[in-house]
Amino acid sequence: MNRVYYAMFYAVLALLASRGLSATKHSGAISLFHREFVKPGTIPVEIAKFLDIAFDLRNKCDYRDFVIPERERVDELLVAAETFVTEVEHALRHHP
């Protein structure tokens, strides 16, 4: 789960860097991502929600005792992460 989240998170960092933006916390980067790319419509809301879901689940898995995600859920989020990263790549190419 950790790696699925980080694939999306690093894509977000690339988007932010493309506009000279950065954040010191994950939550700050995600907030900037929503403000700069989701709200204006560059990244669709239905794609952006995958990052929020992965962030929440990653936090639970990494910081709470005995939280192990179901394999099917991680597989679903892996597919979602691939879609998310593809959308970010598209935005980087077409929305300077």
Tell me about this structure.
With 96 residues, the chain is mainly alpha-helical. It has one domain: Nucleotidyltransferases  domain 2 (Four Helix Bundle (Hemerythrin (Met), subunit A), Up-down Bundle), CATH 1.20.120. It is built from 4 helices and no strands. It has helices spanning 2-18, 26-38, 45-63, 71-94. The longest helix has 24 residues, at 71-94. The chain starts with a helix and ends with a helix.
Global structural class: mainly alpha
Radius of gyration: 13 Å
| CATH C-level | Mainly Alpha
**How would you spell out the order of helices and strands?**
HHHH
| Number of domain modules | 1
Give the CA-based shape.
globular
Please count the helical segments. 4
Q: How far apart are the first and last residues' alpha carbons, in Å?
A: 30 Å
Fourth-tier CATH superfamily name: Nucleotidyltransferases  domain 2
Q: Mean pLDDT, rounded to whole units?
A: 92
Largest sheet features? none
